[in-house]
Amino acid sequence: MDMDIVDFLLTRFQDDAAESRKLLTARGVAPSDRWYEERLLRECEAKLMLIDIIGGARRNALARMLLDPDGQGKLFADELEWTSLALASMAAGYQDHPDYQDGWRLTEKRS
C-alpha cells in the first residue's frame, strides 16, 4: 500500500526530532554539537507546523472541489498543485529513504 506524502513527512520529521532529543541527552555532547541538534530540533518542530498548515490547505481544497456546485474546479486544482509541490519539496531531502515514492519527485524547478 502506498504511503501518503503527509504521513511520510510526519514520520520523517518525528523520527528526526526523536534522534535529536536522544543526542541532546547523551553525555559529553560538545557545545557545537548541542547547538546543531537544538537547531535541528527547532527545524523539525517548524516543519511539523508547516505540514499542519499545508495539509489543512490541501484537505480544504479537496473538500471544496468535491462540493463544487459552481464549477470552480480549476481554482481548486491550482490550490492542490501548490500544496503538492510544497510537500514534494519537503520530501526531496528524503529521496534515499525506502518509503520515498518516485511520484513525489520534482522534475523541474519553478520560478
Task: Write a brief caption for the model.
With 111 residues, the chain is mainly α. The chain has three helices and no strands.
Overall outline: elongated
The parts where pLDDT drops under 50 for at least 5 residues are: none
* Average residue pLDDT: 87
The radius of gyration over CA amounts to 17 Å
Q: What share of the residues does DSSP label as strand, in percent?
A: under 5%
Structural category: mainly alpha
Following the backbone from N to C, one meets helices and strands in this order, namely: HHH
Instruction: Give the number of DSSP strands.
Output: 0
Spatial separation of the terminal alpha carbons: 34 Å
Percent in helix: 55-70%
How can the largest sheet be summarized? none
The total domain count is 1
SS field, number of helical segments: 3
InterPro entries: DUF6221
Pfam family, one: DUF6221
Q: What would you say this structure looks like, in words?
A:
InterPro entries: DUF6221 (IPR046193). Pfam families: DUF6221 (PF19730). The chain is built from three helices and no strands. By secondary structure, it is mostly helical. It has one domain (5-97). The mean pLDDT is 87.
